[in-house]
Amino acid sequence: MEPETKKARLESGPPETDAITNPTCRVDNQYDDISCDSSPVTKETDNKEVRSSNSQTEDVKFVKETDVGILCYINDLPGCHGVIKQRYSDFIVNEVDVNGKVVELTKLEVDKISEEKVQDEEEESFKLPEDVMKTLLALSSESESEMAPAFINLESMDDKELRTKYHQTIKSKFPGLDSSTVTQDEKKVIKVVKKANTKMKNRWKNEWPAGRGNYCQFVLYKENRDTMSAINDIARFLSVNRNIFQYAGTKDKRAKTSQEITVYRMFAERLEELNTRMKYMHFGNYRYVNEPLRLGKCQGNKFTIVLRNITGDDETLDKSMMSLKEKGFINYFGMQRFGTTSIPTHHIGRAVLKNDYEEAVNLILKPRPGETGKIVECRQCWERNKDPVEALIGLPNQNAIEKTILKELKSNKHNFCNAFQKIARNTKLMYLHAYQSYLWNSVASQRIKQHGLQPVIGDLVLTEEIQELHESEDSENKDINIIQPIVLDDKNVSQYSILDVVLPLPGHDVTYPENQVRKWYETLLAGDGLTLDSFKHKIKSLSLPGAYRKIVIKPGDVGWKLYRYNDVNVELALSDLDRLQKKAEPSFEQDGQFKALKIEMTLPSSCYATMALREVLKIDTSASYQSTLNVT
Predict the structure, then answer these.
(1) Could you give the percent of the chain with pLDDT greater than 70?
(2) What's the pLDDT at 434?
(3) What does each C-alpha distance from 361 to 310, 382, 392 come to in angstroms?
(4) SUPFAM superfamilies annotated for this entry (predicted)?
């Protein structure tokens, strides 16, 4: 049951109001003065109200910050326009592990000394020839439908001891393969075939050395790949189930990133061999551990970001960066949370909370500009005649969400609820979390507009020193422990700063501030035909318990440097792989045509670096808008 909300008296600040009337605003803080105007690229939003998402137009070219409640700034400095991610190499992310150590790829080779402690020395001394290794790696990466045996010819096939070493090494390094000695053209050869998947689990168990941790932990370095697709490709190359891999968090696609991965009972050598076979990915820093990684089990991420084609004088840039370092930024959910097409993901989430599955399905299948291929015909067909059979014609597997929905509608054309339920659970929750995020952003803007950056009576602060309690990845998780926040009153309000204040990510198991903030949530929800009780969904897997999120975050380890350059393709920041390859640090061209700002900072988990950058740039951070700024 939601506890009764007590109306609290505000000692200072503007009079209370229940209206959601928040113009785009900048907050210049000694945390008192608020000046309202618009950011340079959203002047049309002056005096714009924060409205329910139901009042927004569905048919838009792309989603803007103002569409998702992102309206305010910490400082009142002029914007310094620049391009975010002109090249994916301009965005470098290193995970910070649970102990606060920055994860870096520093070596690609397996540590042979540590391996000798757990493996037989004679076995380690025998190496398969390079051409044989390539053949076996190719065989192990093939799908079952492509399987064909490989044959290994040796000069001394009558040497039983040599054949035994081959069999033992294949068995050790390739648990998914079986080898045997057969006669071919009156000669003995080694035949290697792929095992049936049903045998894999027991084979791993029987062959794993005693006393070794069950998980190989390694650093995955990737370029221009998202974490899930990278893991899917690794699993395919190794012919293993992708579910044996674990990670603490997903990393940006358009970036160079380093993060830790664990994999169940995988020999490090198998991963090491992929360094020469897989594009845009490298593996290293292997060790064996007893426990796998879990989602959220990291402190955050270290970012190295290059903003290209920067305008503004150096003094203004320094002031903007100093403000970011000392005062922080509003901890909005970034534009990635709401999708990159004309159909915002939070609109789909809103429809699901309203149990309007036909609307949710129609939004998912709705035509959107910028797409190519069969998916365009599919969407046009659905919009034209709502025929799932025709819409499915030629639709490739890569459009998994649309294909899953249409296949279910093919069986029952009017059961939109079942069709939506068939898509992957994480995808369904993505839509719901987007709607929660839209509400949080909108209320955060109103909270800052109304009260500035000072704690006020009725605000909430967390009882433990943690950066943030994430919304659950799994709302059925029985181990969820929502921390009970402290409600500020006239006795304790002076003990806290805005850095301690949280707003609830709305759900059925959170406490709401004991001031007008709760009313703001209720007003936004009412405009969408919803209530706070709507988050306790009748379908249990879609219920949202809620969480708490800091309003303001101050980055750690903030540093910055200006560069002049002429070549728009020159790399201005070094990644882990660049350093391994001993690439030179980028140089400064005194008379360069363009100016770039390189920023380094560390952020807690679930914070969006783009929201920190907008404090410096004062421009819309959506991918669609940023693409219009690119210098080619």
Answers:
(1) 80
(2) 95
(3) 42, 10, 15
(4) Pseudouridine synthase
CA pair distance 555, 74, nearest whole angstrom: 13
DSSP string, 105-155: ----S--HHHHHTTS-HHHHH----HHHHHHHHHHHHS-GGG---EEE--T
List, in sequence order, every residue forming a beta bridge with 41; answer none if it has no partner.
none
Our measurement of the distance from residue 240's CA atom to the centroid of its chain's CA atoms, rounded to an integer in Å, reads: 24
Task: Look at residue 142 in the predicted model and tell me its pLDDT.
Answer: 64
Q: How far is CA 118 from CA 112, 127, 213, 288, in A?
A: 10, 17, 11, 11
As given in the structure block, the two tokens for residue 467 are 């950066």
| In the chain, domain spans | 65-92+301-331+553-629, 131-140+149-194, 208-298, 345-423, 429-471+482-550
pTM for this one?
Answer: 0.76
Contact between 486 and 493 (Cβ < 8 Å): no
Q: List strands edge to edge, sheet with 460-461.
A: 486-487, 460-461, 501-505, 547-550
Q: What CATH superfamily classification does 429-471+482-550 receive?
A: TruD, insertion domain (3.30.2340.10)
Strands (DSSP E) found in 290-358 = 298-308, 329-330
The token pair that represents 606 in the structure block: 């679930």
345-423 matches 429-471+482-550 in fold: no
Domain 208-298 -> CATH class: alpha beta
pLDDT on residue 128: 82
Most confident of 107-116, 126-135, 285-294: 285-294
Among 618, 603, 541, 630, CA closest to 249: 603
Compute CA distances 463 → 53, 483, 512, 517, whole Å: 32, 7, 15, 20
Burial class of 427 by CB neighbour count within 10 A (0 to 12, 13 to 18, 19+)? middle
Dist. CA 332–CA 408, nearest whole Å: 36
CB 437 within 8 A of CB 63: no
Inter-residue contact 217 to 287 (CB < 8 Å): yes
pLDDT confidence of residue 143? 58
The pLDDT tens digits of the residues spanning 23-37 come to: 456 554 433 433 333
Whether 424 contacts 406, CB under 8 Å: no
445 three-class SS? helix
- Residue 214 one-letter amino acid: N
Q: Which tens digit of pLDDT belongs to each residue from 435-473?
A: 999 999 999 999 999 999 999 999 999 876 543 444 333
The pLDDT of 346-373, averaged and rounded, is 94
pLDDT band at 130 (very low <50, low <70, confident <90, very high): confident
Q: How far is CA 435 from the centre of its chain?
A: 17
Contact 554, 517 (CB under 8 A): no
Tell me: pLDDT of 119 over 60: no
Protein fold of 345-423: Hypothetical Protein Yqey; Chain: A; domain1 (1.10.1510)
Instruction: Please enumerate in sequence order all residues whose Cβ is within 8 A of that of 609, keeping only pairs 6 or more positions apart, or say none.
Output: 91, 301, 303, 305, 334, 601, 603
